[in-house]
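Input record, target 12 of the design panel.
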């Protein structure tokens, strides 16, 4: 059975003090009922990882990073490697977020390497894909998203693929307040799962958690999460408010 997952992507937000408070609040509010049903993850800025991981302790809430380098070690000023994250026992890392693709020039080939590095370090990649508005309007979104998945994941063995979480995030819905409809989300999640099945077979594809991201909030979460191929959410803006984020987690269970 694939896991239900709600991950918060804090992006480049919060002071350390604010981050500590938000973490305490989320920990306190994610009640026992959610434990074992919905995996809850906070993907926080690099400098806060060790502190917040320590703060979370054995809590049901897990921690993740938002990126890692394609290199292991060396003269790459400002970078953080998967091996560093491994040494800190960080379990999750977001890879290929559209903001990384758009502002930092990350492409499918580079992301394939990052995925390999993350897996080699025992991290679970939350691999993001999704189309910009002009591609959606041109009607070629299925083709693009399939290509994104192919370029960065199709070199993996079935065993390795099973360790990946995929997040479908239409770029036009990220931070815009414009969510994909439940029908649009379901359609694309089914396209992704079918594409995985074409390469790895139905049983492998059915085990992969595919999260929806793009203006998920406490109001729309339940409808989105009720879609058969939507296994949870990657939540940006709404993950910065504890009450709202926890309501989204509860909408998944
Ligand atoms: P949003 O961001 O929820 O603010 O749209 C989602 C994301 O970028 O992962």
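The sequence produced for target 12 reads:
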């Amino acid at each position: 059975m694939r896991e239900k997952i709600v991950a918060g992507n804090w992006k480049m937000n919060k002071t350390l003090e604010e981050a500590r408070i938000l973490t305490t609040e989320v920990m306190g509010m994610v009640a026992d009922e959610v434990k074992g049903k919905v995996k809850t993850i906070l993907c926080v800025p690099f400098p806060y990882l060790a502190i917040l991981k320590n703060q979370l302790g054995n809590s049901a809430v897990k921690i993740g990073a938002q990126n890692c380098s394609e290199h292991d070690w060396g003269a790459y000023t400002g970078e953080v490697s998967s091996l560093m994250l491994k040494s800190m026992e960080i379990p999750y890392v977001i890879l290929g977020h559209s903001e990384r693709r758009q502002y930092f020039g990350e492409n499918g080939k580079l992301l394939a390497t990052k995925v390999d590095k993350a897996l080699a370090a025992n991290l679970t990649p939350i691999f993001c894909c999704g189309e910009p508005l002009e591609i959606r309007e041109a009607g070629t979104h299925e083709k693009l998203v399939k290509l994104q998945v192919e370029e960065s994941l199709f070199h993996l063995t079935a065993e390795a693929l099973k360790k990946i979480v995929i997040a479908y995030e239409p770029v036009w819905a990220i931070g815009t307040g414009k969510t994909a409809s439940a029908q649009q989300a379901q359609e694309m999640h089914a396209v992704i799962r079918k594409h995985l099945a074409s390469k790895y077979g139905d049983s492998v594809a059915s085990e992969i958690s595919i999260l929806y991201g793009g203006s998920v909030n406490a109001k729309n979460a339940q409808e989105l999460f009720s879609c058969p191929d939507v296994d949870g959410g990657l939540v940006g803006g709404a993950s910065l408010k504890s009450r709202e984020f926890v309501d989204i987690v509860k909408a998944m269970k």
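Strands lie at 4-9, 38-43, 61-65, 92-95, 124-129, 165-168, 210-213, 232-235.
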